[in-house]
Amino acid sequence: DLVYVRMVDKFVVIGAGFFFFANAFAIAAVSSPWWIIYKPRENLQSVNRYGLTISCRQAPYGDREWCGYVDVPGEWVATLVLLLLGILCLCCTFCLLVASLFKSEILGKAQKLAFLGMVLFCLAALIFPVGFYFDEIGGSPYKLTPSTSKVGTSYVLFIMAIFFTIIGELFACRVCAPIF
User: Fold this and answer.
1) Is the distance from CB of 125 to CB of 22 less than 8 angstroms?
2) Which residues, 6+ apart, have CB-to-CB distance to 56 below 8 Å?
3) Which terminal residue of the chain, N or C, has fewer Cβ atoms less than 10 Å from its own Cβ?
4) Cα torsion at 37, 41, 42, 45 (round to 10°)?
5) Burial of 61 (0-12, 13-18, 19+ CB in 10 A)
6) Within 10 Å of residue 161's Cβ, how many Cβ atoms?
7) Does 176 or 48 have the greater pLDDT score?
8) Count H helices, E strands: the chain?
9) DSSP letters of 107-134?
10) What is the per-residue pLDDT across 110-124, written as a single tens digit (0 to 9) for each?
11) Residue 40 backbone phi and psi in degrees, to 5
């Protein structure tokens, strides 16, 4: 029975590690303007970067870049809110998982909170592409114009956050326990 308890503790620690890194990826994604990269057709040397909170535009034929807050589609604002709520859920999940090492009845609450965070991240992943109709990008919902726009590294970090959240949930709920 003591071996089982130590095995469960290992899974909780591994799950907490996955949640920690998922949170780090999500925070990095939210804070950077690399969600959409847009190259205007008239000047393929300049690059505009759009994020959920900040956008950066390069001056035509220049190296100067202006970064600031711009009006983004409502879908991107909803994505930001869902991401921030998901980050909050994962922060609380991490703390509850650490606390569950000392008080095991907390583990169930951590698992439910992690599941909520995963659902929020997945909803954000579904809502974000609806905002591709943004005038400055020139796409349509769920479809970017391939010749001028592409997703950036922030979006990739966000997808990794979802992946790490799912793997963390598998470990926290001991779904992987029979395998090892």
Assistant:
1) no
2) 33, 48, 49, 65, 66, 67
3) N
4) 40
5) exposed
6) 30
7) 48
8) 4, 5
9) HHHHHHHHHHHHHHHHHHHHHGGGGGG-
10) 999 999 999 999 999
11) -60, 145
- CA dist 15 and 119 (Å) reads 17
The answer to whether residue 179 scores a pLDDT higher than 70 is no
What six digits make up the tokens of 130?
């609806």
φ, ψ dihedrals at 130, nearest 5°:
-65, -30
CB 154 within 8 A of CB 34: yes
Question: Cβ–Cβ contacts within 10 Å for residue 109, how many?
Answer: 15
Average pLDDT, rounded, for the chain:
86
Residues sharing a CB contact under 8 Å with residue 66, sequence separation 6 or more, in sequence order: 56, 57, 58, 59
The whole-number pLDDT of residue 158 equals: 97
Instruction: Confirm if 33 and 154 have CB atoms less than 8 A apart.
Output: yes
Integer Cα distance of 17 and 103 in angstroms = 18
Calculate the alpha carbon distances from 113 to 10, 15, 23, 61, 85 in Å: 20, 13, 13, 49, 11
